[in-house]
Amino acid sequence: MFKRYVLKSFALFALLLSAQFASADVSGSWVFAVTIMDQTGNPQVTMVQDGAVLTGHYNGQLGNSDFKGTVNGDDFQFVLASEAGSVTYKGTLQADGTIKGSLDAAGMAQGTFTAKKSN
Description:
The chain is of the alpha+beta class. The protein has one domain: Lipocalin, CATH 2.40.128.120. It contains one helix and nine strands, in the order αβββββββββ. It has one helix spanning 2-21; strands at residues 28-36, 39-41, 44-50, 53-60, 63-72, 75-82, 85-93, 99-105, 109-117. It has an eight-stranded antiparallel β-barrel.
């Protein structure tokens, strides 16, 4: 009886621990609010998360481009190719469901962004 109680307690603890370290899913359609060198834009970004793999599509001022990236916990990054060179986005999913992050445009300019899921 005691052994069964200990095993159930351990299983519950393991389940709670794994839930705490599970990554949030950034899949969905997002509207980004980007600021780079005093310029702003609102690209539409669709992301699909499969474990640690991120794929998606960018539609905005830099054109239309598919991208690939990675997810680690609440953090993600992806790189898209544009006419101006590669642009790397790094973001973190916030507790309120929004995203905050930064971007690097081919090493020539850096910026910030926030994002909200579109309806």
